[in-house]
From TrEMBL:
Ranges of the DNA-binding region feature: 28-47
Protein name from the UniProt record: TetR/AcrR family transcriptional regulator
UniProt feature coiled coil, ranges: none
Residue span, HTH tetR-type domain: 5-65
Taxonomic lineage from the root: Bacteria, Bacillati, Actinomycetota, Actinomycetes, Kitasatosporales
Keywords: DNA-binding
Taxonomic source organism: Streptomyces flavochromogenes
Length: 191
């Protein structure tokens, strides 16, 4: 296997783009190579098979979706409140919209995980780690609500963004921020 970490990352980013554009069925070594602009056969030098690409894509998506260092520390400066939860949720939605390709790739991975137990295991581990970190951060920061509050916010935002990215006209009478504010006001108790 080739060991150029920058090339490997570029191939994973290309794989995410292919997932977002063509779905899991379109994810082939040839498609990844074409998207990355590298010679045919390059991907097969970095990944033993398609399953390895899918597994590593899950990790790469979360690397790309993780805020830059210091962003969360700055965001958490105001006192814990429902308004802060709204602002944090709004920032998450903005970050995911900026990385739309990653989020669409994640949807494709979720669907593919239904058919691939090994991918399901890997994706569950990654998603559970992210959810657990969000719950822990929420509780440690003294934000209003409990672990179930965070779970409900997660469910609501996941569904809302699924609609927003896949059928954008569905809620065209409401701005995304307005919908997020409604979700937060209905789920998060007053502090």
């Amino acid at each position: 296997m080739a060991r150029n970490p920058e090339r490997r990352t570029a191939l994973l980013d290309a794989a995410i783009q292919v997932l977002a554009d063509d779905g899991a069925r379109g994810l082939t070594f040839r498609a990844v190579d074409a998207c990355a602009g590298v010679p045919t056969g390059t991907s097969s030098n970095y990944f033993r098979d398609r399953d390895q690409v899918l597994s590593e894509v899950a990790d790469r998506i979360f690397v790309r979706l993780t805020p830059e260092p210091g962003v969360m520390e700055t965001a958490m400066l105001p006192a814990p409140s429902r308004a802060l939860v709204f602002e944090l949720m709004r920032q998450v939605a903005q970050r995911l919209a900026a990385e739309r390709t990653c989020y669409l790739g994640l949807f494709e991975l979720r669907l593919e995980a239904v058919r691939r137990p090994e991918l399901r295991t890997q994706l569950t581990k990654v998603l559970r780690g992210d959810l657990d970190a969000n719950i822990q951060g929420h509780l440690e920061a003294g934000m209003p609500g409990d672990a179930d509050t965070v779970r409900l916010l997660y469910f609501a935002l996941t569904g809302l963004l699924l609609d927003h990215f896949t059928v954008p006209g569905l809620h065209d009478d409401r701005h995304l921020d307005d919908l997020i504010e409604t979700v937060v006001n209905r789920i998060v108790p007053e502090a």
